[in-house]
Structures are given as structure tokens and as C-alpha cells.
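Re: the 1105-residue chain
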Amino acid sequence: RVDWTVRHQTRRRTHTSARGRSVQAPWRARPLRGCDNLDSRGRISRCAVGSYLLAVLRSSLVGRAVQRCRECRAGMDATGVARSSDSRPELERPSKVARIGMLRDAAEAYAGGQMQQHRQTCMHEIAWPSETPASVRLPVLPYTGAPAFQFSFKPDAFQTKAIDALEAGHSVLVAAHTSSGKTAIAQYAVGMALRNGARAIYASPLKALSHQKHRELADMFGRVGLVTGEVAIDPEAPCVVVTTEVLRNRLYEQSDTLQRVSYIVFDEVHYISDPDRGVVWEECIFLAAPHVRFVFLSATVPNGMEFALWIAQTRRHACSVVATTSRPTPVQHYMLPAGGNSLYRVVGEDQAVDEHGLASALAAAKRTTLEHQPASGRRANRQAVGQTLPKLVQMLVTMRYDPALVFCFSRQEVEQHALGMIGLDLTSNSEKEMISCIYHNAVDCLCPEDQRLPQLSNLLPMLMRGVGIHHAGLLLAVRDIVEELFQAGLLRVVFTTETLGAGLHMPAKTVVFSGLHKFDGSSWRMLTPGEYVQMAGRASRRGVDDCGLVVVLLDGSVEIMADEARARLLGSSDPLQSRFRLSYNMVLNLLRHRPPIDPGKMVESSFLQFQMKRSASQLKEQALTLQAQCDSVVIPDQPMVQEYVALLERFCRLSYELRAVVTQPQCSLPFLQPGRLVRVVPDQGRAAQAPSLPDFSAYSDEQVAAAAEMFGNMGVGGLAAIAHGGVWAAVVAFEQLEAQQDCLVGESGGSTARNPARSFLVDVLVNTDDNGQGSPQHRNDGRQLCLLPAAASNGRPQVVSVLLSQVDCFSSVRVYIQKDLRKLEARQAGMKSVALAVSRLCMASGQVPSLDLAEDMKVKDSASAKLAGKLEHAEDCLRSHKLSGMSSLRSCVASLQHKLLLQGEAKAADRKVRHAHSIVMAKELDKMLQALHKLKLIESNGIVTWKGQVAVNLHTPNALVLTEMIFRGMFDDMNAQQLLAACSCFVCDGAPPAAMKLGEQLAAIFSSVESVAQRLNKTAHDECTGRVYPTHMDLVLRWSKGSRIPELLKMTSLYEGDIVTTMKRLDGLLQNIICTLQQDMHSCLAVSLAEARRSIQRDVLMNNT
């Protein structure tokens, strides 16, 4: 039995300051308590809520009515946005005079739009096209006609205002928190289309979300179609749910099914910021018919009005922005250190950060890590999370804070944590029977062999205990079962990756984060505020929960600062940012359109061009401000200061170049005896590249004066010593790294070229400070030390491992250090000897004597001698410079640095202004048109050729490569299995592992495909034609020969779901090619491809559940 301590902070009315207190809450006995107004289940008591609302209503009812009339007559504010505060009919409405004044003020508004607030929970703005007369720009009034769709509940203010805007003929952007009821507006838009005898399209970014929305809309409206890349159900229905890519392709094809469409709903429109897929949303918006109105559903975004203004300008009709920042149910955020036993409330129901709780949580996480894992690495911290999660889940279920979603950031972590729940049984016997029934109903449609797949056979015992998993590597049947059971309330906890938080409507009462860091494909990084908000938004179910819960596990692997945590807890979603880019397929589709569309027109109408033009005025003002600030900086004797700075840069660059010579192993290893004084460059960034000058304004004159002596060369001056950054240390030992350790974990940047000095590790006794000022030295565990000069009084001597390439200078002096340095007293004595030696040598001769490059280290080549001579000359110039002894030298150099920085920023802002006024991608478009003409895909007048028509019909990024291979007849002599192997190169997203080897036949096939791709990339001057990979060739070949999924799992690291997805993508590509060839009379090749396609269409591949 574990006691969980709930720490919180309560503000009392009679006190002006906060007072913290702790409540011991055994996880099996008592619920979470946060204030005196919570009932026994941790919810705000109805009595307290009723008393509070009644008091507010009595005190402000009359005042609100008076204030509303004043605001209606106020007209536009300083931002040019007309403001009013009309309310719903159930509250007092403005008088007739006030309403007339509101309409008159609205008529005088200009293109800035209009804004209306509703009880401070809903914000409404209207974006108009710039050419719209002011007399037409009227506010949206409440709709009084017969509703197009009757809800079973009373709509909220933002829902009602969005419906009013739709009835007024506007497009609408609805920005609200997850589970706030945005889908109701989409349902009303579908109802409007059906009422008017038109059609509606619901576009979603995910296939799984499309299936979910299809089920929901079919329950409401009856006949609803579904079209994805894999499924086509009743595409002629009055309402059709599609994926966004399918909609884009239909718009390019000018499909007859789009003629009567009057409303298009874009769900999760924030996907427009996706680097890979965001351009699809812009294409759809541009290509839709002029009469179409849009409904954009999104999480809260900070620049919704900017997006609406673009829609209004592009589509030539008004676009309303209806936003609400209030949540339908409050959410509290807690933090739990992994391995600890206390929950800390960091955000209360008032959505304010509890600073005391946050500081306590971060301190406890650091303390727990040091106590339980003194040498913690990421694996050890993951184990601590795995040990904590079962106790946390049990507590949540016991206290009725389930169901819960646990977000993990790798598939392996999802499955490991789910298996860690093996000791928990969270369901009753009746629930077990229902789970078993739903499971068997779902898998009965599979063949017996597929029912025995490991994923399916291992799933049922886990589900029976109320635990589920969900990630993209699972079979579609598994994901469907988990989603169905979770929505039915039969699963208590589901472990999932962040893909579940991207759009699927699966809200829970509690959301748990297994950590705040994720691997993004190249490195570990912290979640962005937008990512955190998106996933945390799944907490709380509207109409079901009184309060939601978010719990963040602090694993201690990377220290989290309070500012970073606060930014996530209170952060907003990321702004909508255009990811528009040109592609050859887009250009061909626009030229084939009837009538043809100039690709340059689409570029000019893009959200990217709009954002750049809007930023031009701001950038121009910024450039003028920067230039004025630059001109205001006056530096006495500026030419001499510039000359001195140039000498400093030359000194640092030559020191860096000479370091590569002195650290050659054959020259330096004989001198790495214990006690040898060496000057160490602290971090790998400085060691791997020539350092830039630091910001001297961050240093005081006293620090500069002391730096020269600590550097060991008083003649060059303190500024040169600080710019160099080296500190003196004593050698303890050295070792050669193994081949796989050649690249040290502690490196923070720099060149990846082979350097022999990076193959040796040197242990040095050096002064450090974990929290002080100094140059950072990265350790193998990912943390940092600050290396300080030997004489620094606030230092702590430690033995630190550095690469040989970090050693900058070898002194001819050795000091005595004890052999056993495990005791602090021994390290302090050794560091005192180093500091004393450096101080006495500088006082005696002005510098610490170093080994002679030619005489001692036996470096005889003329280039090294010349380099050493240049460095000595640079040091002499620094000593003899006129400004070297000036007392105000540091401030003059710092002022020059500041002026040069402002000057550079001003020039950069000027370039951005010129770029913002130009047409983006104009040169890129010209190159594309030239390449398409050279490849004979278009005529000189822009007409698409027969070959270009084939390329347009192939809906794949590799369309040009496929087309070239078809017209060269490279597929004609291939059999069915060879065709499958060749086509599999076009459905793989990633390069194969280095150890992968292809057979002779497969290697020859891939060589032919790759040669065409390389030739086209050379012609096109870029890689817009797509990439090809041989990763799945052998896999596809074995599947076509009858191999089962268990056999394929032994030869690949892919999950079962990945294999099926690959086969389905290949099947879709083959179908696309066959249809294209049948239209263009390549009948023989079409027959061969059809035979190849039939060989992979079997078993689980043909089941769509």
C-alpha cells in the first residue's frame, strides 16, 4: 500500500497571500482534494457553485445590460475592429436605439473585420474581402428561421454564433478546445446542404477519423458516403466523408460528384501547418467552386483572424471566426516524479499555475532522481516510469478518475508499459463478457490464420483486464477493437502514441504523459506547447465529467526548467503557418485543368504569399527601428576598435588551426603524463570549429582583468583570454576509445569529419561548477558542467573526461597530484597546485611556458611552423596595439559588437521586406516549367502532352519516375513478381538499414529504377520528383509467393500493421497504374499488373473491418 500525497495551494478570501498545505490521501482510501468546496468525489459541490453563480447574477445583471448598450454604441476600437456585445435572447437585449447604432457603426467599419463577445466565453470576428463596400459589412444577427438541424441539447454561445454566421452566408472558422462541441457546427452545415437540396463534404486528415465521422454522420443523416484511399462507400451520397488528399484529387479531376456541393467541412484544419501535407489544404481551398462555403474546425489558434482574412481575400466572401477559450469542463494538471510517492498540483481549475506546486514538483523530481538513480540514464528513468504507472493507474481507477489515456512517445514504450499492467484487473465479470463478445465479433471476419496473429492472440487477455494499446503499427482490426471498447467505456486505460491525440475523438477523464520529451527522428526534444495542449485537451468529457485530470510523469532523464514547464502548462496551440510548396504534379494538374489555371496565380493566392505580404509592413517598421538604433550607437575611435576586434578574431582562428596540429596523437601522447598542465577548451562546439567572439557586454572590467592571468598569457589581454575560453587543468590519465565510441556522446556540435585526436579520451583535474558561470562541458549522461579557471573560488574540483581534440596547449610544467583522487581533499590539493603554478609563472614571465612545437613535440613541417609564427605575430600585435591598455576597451568592443549586430539585423530585415513584396517561388516555377518541357510532359505553349496526362493520373509523389519507366518500356519484360518488386520502391518512405542486402535479381531491378530517378532529379535540379527505396522489395516478393505475416516478422523490424499498410499502399498504387494504362491503351502492361495485384490480395489485406 502506497500513500500518495496531494500537494496544493489554496487562496482564502481573508488573506492576500497564498498559503500552501498538504493533504495525505491514501490512494485506496481517499479521493484527491483541492479546496474546501469539493465533495467526497473530488468535485465542486453543487451548493457551492449555485451560491456563487447566484451572487454573481444578482450583482451584475443590471450592470451587464447597461454596459452592453454602451459597448454597442462605442463603434470601432483603436485596432479598427468594430466591437459589440449582443447576447442571446434569453438575456436582456439592447434597446432598439442601441441596435440601430450598432448597425450604423458596423457599416462604417473597414477591412479590419468585426468582433463580438458573448458573456466573455465566445469571441466572434468577421473578415471581409478588401473590395467589399462598408455599407455591406453588417454584423451577424441571430437567425430566426427554421433550423436546418435540430439538436438534442441547447447549443452553447459559440455554437449558436457559428450557426448564425453560416445562415448569413459566411464561411466559418471555429476554434475551440477539444471536446467542446465543434462537430455540432459541421453537423448543422450538413443539415443546411440537405435542406437546400445540395451536397456536403466532410474532409478529415486521417483515415481512422474519416471512418469515425462516417459512423457518426450516418447515425444522424442516414445516407452518408465514405471515400478514402482504401474504401469507397456510396460516393454519390448527399453527404460524403473523405480524406483531404482524396478531395484534392477529385477537385483536380473536376469530378461530376462535386457539382452540387455547397459546403465543405475541414476537420483539424491546423494540419495546414504540417510540413508534408499542409499544402493539400491550400490546394483544396483554391480549387473549390466559387459558391462553396467552408467550415473549418480547429483547436484554439492564435492567428485565426489572419487565416480568415486570407479566406475572405481568396474566396471573395466573408469569413467568420468564432473562438472560445473556455473549456466545457475544467481540467487540473498534476506532476508526479517517477519513483516518488507525491502528486503535485501545478494548475488548478482556474487555469492558473500554482507556482509553489510547480517548484515543489520539479525539486522533488530532481531529488528523487539523485536518491534512487545516482547514475541515471534514459533507460533507468524509463524503468522508474514503468514502475510508477501501475500504481498511478490503480489509484485513478479506485478514485474514479478513469478512463485514462497514457501518452507514450514510441511504440515500444507503449507496449512495455501496457505489459507492466499485468498485475491489474480493472474490469468486472459482466464487462469481461462484453469485451469478449465484441472482440470475437470483430475477429470472426478474419480467416483462421489471421486470427492467430500474435497481435490479435495477445490482445484479448490484456483487454479483459481493462487495458488497451493503440499505435500506427497495429493491425486495423486491433485499432478498431480498442477504439470501440474505449468509447463503450469498457477499457479503463489505453496506452497510445501521440497519433491518437491528433484527431480521433476519444476523450477520457484523465490524460497521463509518460514524459515531456520525445524523439523526433533525429534527436530528443521537449514537447512544444502546441503538442502538449493538443494531447492534454483529451482530458475531460463534456456532459460526463465534472472535472478532468492531466498527470505528467517527470522521469528525471533531462532536467526541466520552471519556465519550460510553465510554457507547456499555459501554452496555446501553434499558429497556423503556411507550408505551401510547388510540385511537378501540382503544376501538371493546374495546366491540365479546364480551363487551364496559371500556376503562378495559385502561388499568388497561397496562404504563404498572404502571410508574407501581411508581414511586410511590420518588417519595414522593424528595419527602420533597427537602423535608427544602429545609428544611435556612437563609438569613440571606431576604426581603431574595429582593428582590435579583427585582431581578436584572427587570434582565435589561428589558435583553433594550431590546435589541430598539437593534438595529433603521435605528437601529444608522449606528454600526457599525470600532473602535466594543459589548457582545455571546455565544450565540443569550441573544439570542433573556430569560435566566434563572445558577447563582451556580459562581462565586467574586473573579470576581463583577471582573465589574462587565469589564461596563462597576460600579454594577449583579458579580452583575448575570454574569447579563447580555455582553462588550465592537470592531466590524470588517458585512454583510446573503441571504434564505436569514436563519437563521444558529449559532443554538442561541429564537424563530423574523421579526426585522430577524437579517438583518445583524456581525464583531467579541473575546476567545475554545476550551477555557476562558465563554459559548458557536456557529459555522457546528457548533463552539463561549467568549467572554471583554476583560481576560481566558487569552483569544485572534479576529474572530467575530455577528448584529446579539446586540449589547446601543453605546458612544459608538471605539478604533483595524488594518485587517488576519489576524496574531495585530494582533488582540492591538486587544484590548488595548478592555480599556484599558473599564478607564479604568469607573475615571473607573463605566461605559462608551453612545449616547443619543433624541439619538444617534433613537429617539423614548414606549414605548422608558419602557422605558429602567424599566431605569435597575432599575439605581438595584440600586446602592442594602441588600445591594449585602455581602461574602457571592453565597453568599446561591446558597443561595436552591439552596433554590428543591429546593422546585420537591419540588413536582414530589409532583405525580408524586399522578399515579402516579391512573388514567392517565381524562379522555382520557371525551372519546373522548363524541366517539364524538356521531359516532353508539356508543349512550349503549356499544353499537357499525352505523356503528361499519364503522369497527372498517377497519384503518387514518384509520378514522373513511374511515367518515364512506362514510356521507356522498362516494365514490359518483367513478370508479375518483378513488377511487384519494382513498384514497391515507390511506396516506401524510409531508407533501408545499412545491413540490408538484396539478391542479385532484386538489386538489378532496383538499379534500373534508381537510374531513372537519378536522371530525372538531375534534369529537374532537385528532388521534387520523389525518392525511391528498396526497403520492402524482398518483403513484397515473399508475400506474393504466399508467405504469412508471422514469417515476414522474422525478416523485418516492422510491426504487423506496418506490413499490412505497405501492402495496401502497393495495392492502391497498382490499381491507380492499371486504371491509367487502360485509359491510354497500354493493355498488355495493364494485364500483367492486374495479375501482380491479384497475387497480393489475400488474407488480412482484404479486410477493412
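The chain has 37 helices and 29 strands.
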